[in-house]
Known about the structure:
single chain; mainly alpha; 9 helices; globular
Amino acid sequence: MKEGAGNVALSYFWSREFLTNRYFLWLLFWCNAVGTVYGYIWYGEQMKLTLVEQPMWQIVFVPDSPTASLFFTLALLWVLYPPRSIIIKRIGHVIQALAVVTSVKYGVWAVSIIFAGWMQGGTQHWQDWMLIASHSAMAIEALIYVRFFGFRWAALVVAGLWTLLNDTMDYTYDIYPWLPASLYDHVDGVRNFTFGLTLVSILCAWLALRQAKRT
């Protein structure tokens, strides 16, 4: 009886009825919005340093994770308020594709980098566990909500190209996210992992999209 009740509860929490409930969507929206603001504050010092030492246009490519979170936050608005305009709908599809690719990519990236830093002898901080939890949630929620997003292949290509461009800017102009001190001797390895993870994230978004079309 308990197992059956557990399966029913799990099915409900996975259902369209629950995941697209407006109250839950607004809760998710505000959680991500607050996380986005906190993320930009977290990147504040690096953004200031970039403005001082680098051309101003490069600032767009500095705050990777909060921008991914911003894309997902905005993507939820298209679920809450489906537009009638074809142009607004297409813009929403690109934002949704960006939300999925970048949330998966930077969610997994941040967690991997934290663990890699520890493995290289870096010091553990309590904030690391907060970042692990929040970035894991970024990747998971993106893969869960891809079935409610309306984007297709063209938007996914745009999102993939943007993410690869962001990687190129990061490691060409050294504006990649600040790393644990123990990893600065391994920047080439981090760069290769970053580009590879982008390709994997695009693949994950594509596979999730295929699965969503079948259901």
